[in-house]
Amino acid sequence: MTARRPHSMALIVASAVPALVLVWSVDPWMPILLGLPLIAFLAAMTSDVITPPSRTSMFVLAAAVGMAGIASLLYGTHRGATLFHWGIMHISEGSIATSSAAMLRILSLALPALLVAGAISAHEVLATCAVKRILPDRVALATLIALRLIPVISSDLEETQQAQRANGRATTPFTVALTTLVIAIRRAVRMSDVAEIRGFSRSNRTWSVYRPLGIRDWMLITGSVIIGIAAMFTVAYLGVWNSAIS
Fold it and tell me: Which InterPro entries match (predicted)?
């Protein structure tokens, strides 16, 4: 019997824990105590659905980490012994600590999200929001249709560019965007008419992909929250808490 896959809402809540925890302290220990256990927990709980991040996403993450680290290293807080100083660039013990904390925070924020991003279904999330009255039905449907049309609009852009080149016209960004916008508006009008005819405006419509949270989903949410709280208490107990608010 196939195991029940994790609910998309549970994956979103679990991957959002670092953002809710790291906002309280800027010390370099919090990302380590939070990120490593959380990544291991998510990998163990969702091993049947997670996929390795793509090379593009890892490259973007590495670039973001590198830029944040270099900026914090050269222009961060100056405290402790000065190691290098030239013009506005000032490297000190304090800037090294700030740079390390910035890079670790980005990694602990991004890696859990990248780990479960491929297993999250936008349809399931919006269906849950509509059934639980978090979003009105019309807003949920409009958002879902907009997400589904992103690849179609991208294809329209390419076809518009090719058509204008075939006609010998200049493919400026403005003309391509304007033509694609007109096509998108016409398609939206046709889709709204079809949706109205098929009864999508009814308030009591059924969402076929909706399913309630199961035991595994609640375990995933609870375990992630416990890891976040444990990291906060550990940092406070060790006396390395560096408040980000005061």
Answer: ABC/ECF_trnsptr_transmembrane
pLDDT recorded at residue 8: 92
- Is 54 in the same domain as 151? no
Tell me the Cα Rg of the chain.
Answer: 24
Which domain, by its residues, includes 159? 132-196
Per-residue model confidence (pLDDT) at position 18:
92
H or E segment to which residue 85 belongs? strand 82-86
Cα angle 115-118-122, degrees, rounded to a multiple of 5:
125
In a domain, 107, yes or no: yes
Judge whether residue 154 has pLDDT over 90: no
The answer to whether residue 241 is domain-embedded is no
Instruction: Looking at the structure, tell me whether residues 111 and 219 fall in a common domain.
Output: yes
Residue type, 129: C
* Section 177-197 average pLDDT: 82
Full DSSP string of 86-97: ETTEEEEHHHHH
pTM of this prediction exceeds 0.70: yes
Q: Tell which residue, 183, 53, 59, 182, has the closest CA to residue 113.
A: 53
In a domain, 66, yes or no: yes
Same domain? For 102 and 221 the reply is: yes
Domain-located, residue 126: no
Cβ 227 vs Cβ 37: under 8 Å: yes
φ, ψ at 71 (rounded to 5°): -65, -45
Q: Which two tokens stand for residue 234?
A: 């550990």
